[in-house]
């Protein structure tokens, strides 16, 4: 029976399981019609035909076109094998033996060899319970920052720690604890290996850009704060961007550097005046220290002199008493006693009794004792200082009082700033100090990085023009920095001259710019008249004998 003829559906239209819906609808219509006609045989035939079509669809793709199927014995063996595997999985003893066989037989232990004792493995649940019981101590936000700051100066760990620092700033930094992070970042700008790692540079840029934008109001508050932000931006962000391999980033970095250099030029007078005042204060402080040392030395020497004078006076008094207590010797001529003269008394007591002579002797003794330590010039200075102190006491007092007044004025002027710096965790440096650090980082960091990375052709022109401009405006820099810029500029000029092509030497298009070496050779061959006869003979012999008697 052909099911497709019974249902009236061509077999070519039933190729996919979705086509069975049409066959089902057709079978339903035929079944209803035969049931209304009470033709049970045809109705049953329609049902069988639909089942056959359905079965044919299931056979497609599931072995319908297999030539050889599995036999009865094969199925029995499979059944037996599956049954065995189930039993093996259930049996623990068989599992144990199989596991031992997989690992290998038991080895023999020598006398000195230790046998490995299997340790008891704790279950995962027990481990979880124990881990839950042992809770890690909670680390405070500032303690975490302190730990990061302790590890930041290590060169090998720097790239990983910077990532953690960036995460700390994004998650925990706020207005209350920003002074602590400012202190860490200020130390971070002074690290020499800030831009050694490629990934670390990007993290450093992210950290400082986020901190500067988050605290933009604080950095725009005052000139000191503004210059501090500029100095940080120069030392970190611009320094890391000097290592870029992108033309647009390099051009924007150079434009920012020129703007910062203009700011340095603008504040040159302020820096010079600040340095002069700093030197004057340092000189004053040194002079005060030296004066205090001299005063201490003079006081100690005066005490020694007073002590020696007292000892001599005591000796004199004791000597006079002893002399008066001695018996008087009668004179040989008159029989009466002649008192000794003053010179004899002085010789007896070992010197004169005048205070001036004693002072001179004492000074000579002290100078002799100090000859080994003090030079002649220092002795003269000391004697001058001593004369000034002894002769003009009032003048010395006036000078010291003026110096004290000046120092008091300086201290009173700087008292509120000192108090303000003491109250804060991060003392904000002066505007001049920030500009000086910015100038230092501009030369020794940014310009050095640009000079190293001027190799590519797309970067060479930009960097060379920038160095040319800095060379012309180098007067605002320090002397050491000026010499460094001059050395870089001279090196750039030398490299440019070496790489320049000479124009005008070769204007002919047919002549190559580089000389061409021809490998071909010119040879002259001279033939005599006899060669023509021999060539003719060979040609003739070839024609006659078919190339058998060819002369070679």
From TrEMBL:
Segments of skewed composition (Acidic residues): 353-375, 390-417
Domain J: 2-81
InterPro entries named in the record: DnaJ_domain
Biased composition (Basic and acidic residues): 376-389
Annotated segments matching region Disordered: 317-417
Protein name: J domain-containing protein
Species in which this protein is naturally found: Durusdinium trenchii
């Amino acid at each position: 029976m052909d099911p497709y003829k019974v249902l009236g559906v061509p077999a070519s239209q039933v190729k996919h399981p979705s086509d069975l819906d049409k066959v089902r609808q057709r079978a339903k219509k035929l079944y209803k019609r035969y049931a209304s006609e009470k033709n049970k045989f045809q109705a049953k035939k329609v049902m069988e035909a639909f089942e056959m079509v359905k079965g044919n669809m299931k056979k497609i793709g599931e072995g319908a076109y297999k030539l050889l199927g599995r036999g009865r014995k094969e199925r029995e063996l499979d059944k037996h094998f599956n049954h065995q595997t189930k039993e093996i999985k259930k049996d623990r003893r068989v599992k144990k033996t199989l596991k031992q066989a997989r690992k290998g037989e038991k080895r023999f232990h020598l006398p000195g060899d230790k046998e490995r004792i299997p340790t008891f493995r704790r279950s995962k649940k027990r481990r979880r319970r124990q881990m839950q019981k042992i809770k890690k101590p909670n680390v405070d936000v500032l303690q975490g920052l302190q730990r990061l700051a302790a590890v930041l100066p290590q060169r090998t760990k720097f790239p990983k720690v910077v990532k953690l620092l960036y995460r700390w700033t994004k998650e925990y930094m706020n207005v209350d604890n920003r002074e602590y992070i400012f202190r860490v970042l200020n130390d971070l700008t002074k690290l020499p290996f800030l831009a050694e790692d490629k990934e670390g540079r990007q993290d450093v840029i992210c950290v400082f850009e986020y901190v500067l934008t988050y605290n933009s109001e604080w950095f725009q508050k005052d000139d000191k704060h503004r210059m501090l932000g500029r100095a940080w931006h120069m030392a970190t962000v611009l320094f890391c961007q000097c290592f870029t391999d992108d033309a647009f980033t390099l051009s924007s970095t150079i434009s920012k550097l020129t703007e910062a250099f203009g700011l340095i030029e603008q504040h040159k007078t302020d820096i010079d005046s600040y340095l002069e005042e700093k030197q004057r204060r340092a000189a004053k402080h040194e002079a005060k220290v030296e004066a205090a040392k001299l005063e201490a030395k003079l006081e100690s020497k005066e005490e020694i002199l007073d002590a020696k004078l007292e000892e001599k006076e005591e000796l004199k008094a004791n000597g006079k008493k002893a002399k008066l207590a001695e018996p008087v010797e009668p004179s040989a001529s008159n029989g009466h006693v002649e008192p000794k003269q003053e010179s004899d008394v002085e010789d007896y007591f070992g010197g004169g009794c005048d205070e001036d002579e004693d002072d001179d002797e004492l000074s000579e003794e002290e100078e002799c004792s100090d000859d080994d330590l003090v030079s002649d010039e220092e002795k003269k200075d000391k004697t001058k200082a001593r004369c000034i102190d002894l002769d003009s006491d009032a003048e010395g007092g006036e000078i010291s009082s003026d110096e004290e007044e000046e120092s008091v004025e300086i201290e009173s002027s700087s008292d509120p700033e000192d108090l303000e710096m003491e109250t804060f965790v991060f003392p904000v440096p002066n505007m001049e100090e920030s500009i000086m650090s910015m100038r230092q980082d501009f030369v020794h960091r940014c310009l050095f990085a640009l000079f190293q990375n001027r190799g590519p052709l797309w970067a060479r022109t930009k960097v060379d023009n920038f160095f040319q401009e800095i060379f012309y405006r180098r007067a605002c820099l320090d002397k050491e920095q000026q010499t460094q810029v001059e050395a870089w500029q001279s090196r750039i000029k030398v490299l440019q001259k070496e790489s320049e092509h000479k124009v005008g030497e070769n204007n002919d298009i047919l002549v190559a710019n580089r000389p061409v070496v021809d490998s071909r050779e010119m040879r002259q061959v001279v033939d005599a008249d006899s060669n023509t006869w021999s060539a003719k003979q060979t040609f003739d012999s070839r024609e006659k004998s078919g190339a058998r008697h060819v002369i070679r």
